[in-house]
Structure formats: structure tokens, C-alpha cells
């Protein structure tokens, strides 16, 4: 893999996702400084004020789980607060560039853990490639970065999965 970049599109309601992806961006910089074949990371945060754009490069979507009503398993689900991200990812042809979804949540919610990310992956016809809890750990940062790096390299080699 040459001088490629990992593009991340995310939403952060309480700051956990933003903290994780900015920490991963810092990690990528140190990895790139040690070996410039390691990709850097660019971030795009989607908010209610975001202007929708047409994506032209592959990206990974980071999706926290926020539910309001239903358990998402047998009595429905009401998505809470991440809808604008879903609308952005489905805008025009944006979904075709999504290389995978990374989910976060609180493991205390059992089957609902990363439920939103699993639903987004299905909706975008891609895979949920990784998860982490709350703000993640240094081990999560390295693991998720490597999963994205490998998936991007496979995409660049094949232009498909």
C-alpha cells in the first residue's frame, strides 16, 4: 500500500466517538512517522448542521449506539440522534464507498451493544468490521486501525470485496 489515507465519517453525540477517532488519528501519525507506508487518517464529523456532500473516496463509518424505545431485538427500535449520519451516508451514491462500519456502545446493554452499527452495516450493504466500548482503549485503537488498514489495502488491490 502506498501513500493511502483512511477516511472516517462519524457522528459523536457525547464526545466518545470523537475522542476515539481523534486518538486513532494520533496513533496513525505515529505509525506513519515510523513507516510511511502506514496510512494517515482524515476525519469528517457529521452534525445536524453539516452540509451533505457527495463522497468520492472510500471511507469507514463510525456509529455509536443511541436507542430510545424498544430493545431492537423483538419489540422494535427507535433510533436516537444518529439519523443525520444515516441520511448523509445514504445521500446520492455515498453508500457505495463505505468499506465498513465500526460500532461503539456500552456492553451493559447486552444485545443492544453496537445495535445501531449492525443496522447501519446491513442498510449500507457492508460489514460491521470492528467495535469498541465507550471511548475505547489503546488496544482497541491499534486493533481497529489495523482492521481498517488491511481492509483499505484489500480494496485498493481489488477495488472490491
From TrEMBL:
Coiled coil: none annotated. It comes from the Bacteria. InterPro entries: Flavoprotein-like_sf (IPR029039), RNR_NrdI (IPR004465). Signal peptide: none annotated. One of its GO terms (molecular function) is FMN binding. This is Flavoprotein.
Amino acid at each position: 500500500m502506498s501513500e493511502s489515507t483512511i477516511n472516517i465519517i462519524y457522528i459523536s453525540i457525547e464526545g466518545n466517538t470523537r475522542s476515539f477517532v481523534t486518538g486513532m488519528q494520533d496513533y496513525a501519525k505515529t505509525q506513519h512517522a515510523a513507516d510511511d507506508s502506514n496510512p494517515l487518517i482524515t476525519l469528517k464529523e457529521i452534525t445536524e448542521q453539516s452540509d451533505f456532500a457527495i463522497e468520492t473516496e472510500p471511507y469507514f463509518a463510525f456509529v455509536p449506539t443511541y436507542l430510545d424505545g424498544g430493545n431492537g431485538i423483538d419489540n422494535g427500535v427507535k433510533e436516537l440522534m444518529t439519523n443525520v449520519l444515516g441520511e448523509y451516508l445514504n445521500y446520492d451514491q455515498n453508500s457505495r464507498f463505505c468499506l465498513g462500519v465500526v460500532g461503539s456502545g456500552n456492553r451493559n446493554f447486552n444485545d443492544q451493544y453496537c445495535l445501531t452499527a449492525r443496522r447501519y452495516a446491513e442498510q449500507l450493504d457492508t460489514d460491521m468490521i470492528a467495535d469498541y466500548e465507550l471511548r475505547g482503549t489503546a488496544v482497541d485503537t491499534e486493533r481497529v486501525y489495523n482492521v481498517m488498514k488491511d481492509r483499505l489495502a484489500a480494496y485498493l488491490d481489488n477495488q472490491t470485496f
